[in-house]
From TrEMBL:
This is Uncharacterized protein YbjT (DUF2867 family). It comes from Roseospira goensis. It holds the Pfam family NAD_binding_10. Residues 8-201 form the NAD(P)-binding domain. It comes from the Bacteria.
Length: 213
């Protein structure tokens, strides 16, 4: 079993990934500003409260781990629309060289349907939502994805569609080829299921699959 660092594991997809990685028998370390507040207790769980944009904290968090699940998120609100978003790219610029220095080979990252070359695949309503609400965040996710693509790590970038709070089903589509990409809904629990499976599987290394239920 692996020792996994989850960055952004205090809520949403990241918290689901923490739960499922522990269930799968992995040792888990969580790095998040509110890591000590997460509602999970387990002998194989270590929480580390800190900022993913702090290089010293990152180096400590990466010590002894085998893989990283990067599940950063930002709160929805006016700031996401009105101000530039740089969290995703800034964190990734720091993380990749830190992983190399620490000898951590694998990065499993979640962005979203509409990032990178999936931007125009969601239809008219999806494009309108991007133009009004999501463009700044996804412009930064585009940079993040390119940084990961250009790196020398073993990477997988998951692009889930519209997220729900449904249960984990294990029944979802993993669409690797661009001609198969379709926007759909998927539970955060099922996204986490995919992320955790990539800890010790190689099938999707170097790909950017879209996920939908």
């Amino acid at each position: 079993m692996a020792h996994v660092l989850v960055i952004g594991g205090s809520r949403g997809i990241g918290l689901e990934a923490v739960r499922q990685a522990l269930e799968a028998g992995h040792r888990v370390r969580v790095l998040a500003r509110t890591a000590r507040r997460i509602p999970v207790r387990h002998p194989n769980l270590e929480t580390m409260a800190g900022d993913a944009l702090d290089p010293v904290t990152l180096r400590r968090a990466l010590d002894g781990v085998d893989a990283v699940i990067l599940a950063l998120g930002i709160a929805a609100g006016p700031g996401m629309v009105l101000r530039p978003v740089t969290l995703f790219s800034r964190a990734t610029r720091l993380l990749l060289p830190a992983m190399r220095e620490a000898g951590v080979p694998r990065l499993i990252c979640v962005t979203g349907f509409g990032a990178g070359d999936s931007r125009d695949r969601g239809g008219c309503l999806h494009r309108l939502a991007f133009a009004v609400f999501l463009k700044r965040a996804y412009d930064d996710k585009d940079i993040q994805e390119q940084l990961i693509r250009d790196s020398d790590r073993e990477w997988v970038i998951a692009r889930p569609g519209i997220l729900t709070d449904g249960r984990r089903t294990g029944r979802y589509r993993v669409m690797v080829e661009p001609e198969t990409w379709r926007l759909g809904t998927i539970s955060r629990a099922d996204v986490a299921d995919f992320l955790v499976r990539q800890i010790d599987q190689d099938r999707y290394i170097g790909t950017t699959p879209a996920l939908a239920g």
